[in-house]
Design brief:
The protein is 44% helix and 16% strand. It is an alpha+beta fold. A five-stranded mixed beta sheet has the order 7-6-8-9-10, sandwiched between helices. A three-stranded antiparallel beta sheet has the order 3-4-5. The longest helix is centred in the N-terminal third of the chain and has 20 residues, at 41-60.
Length: 271
């Protein structure tokens, strides 16, 4: 700073002390207790604006989400007041953790270190600058703006999608025939589930193979299956199986009366 900006070394050191300050509303009290700083009219104005900002943030109930960071700077010189950045704290925590252990996937590391995902500030004189360039009288027009880092937000979304297993469809129940196809009965049960507001599907083949039907549940992450065979139809029951877990104790599924099928499925689905 002393070479590029021509600042006195003592001034540069003083600035270095200020940019290390970070905190909440209490930081304003600390700044106000600095007589050298408070001699500046601009510094007094800045503190007053930040006091108003913290007061409004408290009213809105977002005070715990705000950090007053004296090192924050924007690269454009038309800002005339408060500047701000929105940071995804969860991703910052991940980046700290990943910096301690080497990531197996280099792309994960870069996506965790996204920094701020939006930034902006107040620029009351910007509109007036455009008016002046057209030969009109410049006037201060109060303006506040923000820009979003689309690529950074996209990186965060993609990172989260890899962490979570995303379903490609909304199907909650798959109706399966254990043997002999039983196409019409599968159609009846599926229609009954649709009428009850349950997202259900079945394999449209007349004689669907059992393993092929189970594979659909696995591939499409369908959590529940209603399984029927001729004996279940004759007994007026269905078998309900949780396809999301590999639990051999389930056997072929839990026997449920056909008349209780919808209620049982809704209870399992939390409806």
């Amino acid at each position: 700073m002393t070479e590029e900006k021509g600042l006195d070394g003592a001034v540069a050191d003083r600035i270095g002390e200020f940019v290390q300050l970070r905190g909440g509303a209490e930081l304003l009290e600390r700044l106000q207790s600095m007589p050298d700083l408070m001699r500046s009219e601009k510094a007094q104005q800045g503190v007053r604006e930040m006091q108003a900002f913290f007061k409004y943030a408290e009213i809105y109930g977002v005070l715990d989400r705000i950090s007053f960071d004296m090192s924050l700077a924007r690269g454009l010189d038309y800002y005339t007041g408060i500047i701000y950045e929105a940071v995804l704290v969860e991703e910052e925590e991940k980046s700290r953790t990943k910096s301690q252990t080497k990531s197996r996937n280099p792309s994960d590391e870069s996506q965790a270190r996204v920094g701020s995902i939006a930034a902006g500030g107040r620029y009351d004189k910007l509109v007036g600058m455009f008016a002046e360039s057209r030969g009109k009288k410049a006037a201060d027009v109060p303006c506040v703006g923000i820009s979003f880092g689309v690529e950074r937000i996209y990186s965060v979304v993609m990172s989260r999608m890899r962490e979570q297993q995303i379903k490609a469809n909304r199907t909650q129940v798959y109706v399966i025939a254990a043997h002999n196809g039983l196409l019409e009965e599968r159609m009846r049960i599926t229609t009954e589930l649709w009428d009850a507001g349950i997202a259900a599907e079945f394999m449209y083949k007349a004689k669907a193979k059992l393993q092929a039907q189970f594979k659909v549940c696995d591939d499409e992450r369908i959590p529940l299956a209603v399984i029927i065979g001729q004996s279940e139809i004759d007994d007026g029951i269905v078998l309900i199986k949780n396809m999301a877990v590999r639990d051999e104790s389930q056997g072929n599924g839990v026997r449920v009366k056909r008349v209780d099928m919808v209620a049982e499925l809704k209870q399992r689905l939390g409806q």
